[in-house]
Amino acid sequence: MKAVILLSGGLDSATILAMACEQGRECHALSIVYGQRHEIEMAAAKRVAAAYGVEEHVIENLDLRIFGASALTADIDVPKDSVDAPGIPITYVPARNTIFLALALGFAEAREAHEIWLGVNAVDYSGYPDCRPEFLSAFQQVILQGTRSGIEHGEPRIVAPLVSLSKADIIRKGISLGVDYSMTHSCYDPSPDGFACGHCDSCILRRRGFEEAGVPDPTHYAHH
Amino acid sequence: MKAVILLSGGLDSATILAMACEQGRECHALSIVYGQRHEIEMAAAKRVAAAYGVEEHVIENLDLRIFGASALTADIDVPKDSVDAPGIPITYVPARNTIFLALALGFAEAREAHEIWLGVNAVDYSGYPDCRPEFLSAFQQVILQGTRSGIEHGEPRIVAPLVSLSKADIIRKGISLGVDYSMTHSCYDPSPDGFACGHCDSCILRRRGFEEAGVPDPTHYAHH
Questions:
Q1: pLDDT number for residue B224
Q2: What pTM, to 2 d.p., does this model score?
Q3: Which of A27, A151, B104, B152 makes the best surface tag, with the fewest CB within 10 Å?
Q4: Helix, strand, coil percentages, rounded to 5, for chain A
């Protein structure tokens, strides 16, 4: 069965790609370059896609810096050691997952894929609204009402197998499937040579996940 | 009140921009270059944006040709004299309006705009699923569930004032507001020097609209 996999090169998307392969899907990976840190993230996405021998790996370029308003797309510092602060953090990129799912939908419909897999997670996450099941259900309705394949076949279906898992559970799942997490990149603010900062929300959630899972953390952290 | 206006440079989007200006909106125009016919469409969009003195006109580049599967994004001939054929035509671009609305949503949220205006129409149209009110309602739910501004303020709101008007009504409305339709471009298959083909769905719907409205058609057609 054909599936489009949204692949960022991070821990979560590597895990869903491994799951989709294990479940026998023909995987069409889509990565979206949208702002900062292109090269490090895309290098990770390419490593992961190659490791799993995907059918194709398409990279869409999109400049969300012209909208700005996020620490990931504008000249705003990435907050450090603040993962437990309440509210939606400044790393929230306006409508990012809506834009990503919309592009995945166009790709899936063009390829006649039955599924769109994405690695969103609403447990150990930063409180982004577009990582929640309520968002995914609403987007599924857009697919059913707004596309030819949705109207004619009730597809593609959104598959988000990590949405209610903890980060530790995700890592345990990936390890059981043989995922090599040293290929992946999660940090929002890496050094120019690609070392993880260790202090942004993404690094902290990742590090805590490895600790809780009792799995050695393969991440290369920068020394401050 | 701030509003994002999706501006293609066509007849419909010029009309909604005129309406938004008349209603006192601060207009932030967004045009999306996504495949073929960049220059002619973008030239029209720039003319229209300039004529209405928009607050800003942002152009987002996106390559939907890497997905293909449409006469507007792949090497497939644009059908001629077939506007009355049943079904969804091959000019349907997979998930196009979902992608456009997703980008408009990111832009609107970044600018703290209250509204997103788009010129979709479900009367004199080509049967595209993503021009129908059911699609717009579903996308509004995505906004409410998937964005910070949706959760916190119930915004931005989708405004589609043409959705249930005939093409003739749209033209009458625009003429009453002084829209100069000679600035606009609708043809799916223009000649290299920008003349309209007169036979694609978009040309025929436009031409019929001017006839029904009893308004001289300012379009420059190619002579075959």
A1: 54
A2: 0.96
A3: B152
A4: 40, 10, 45
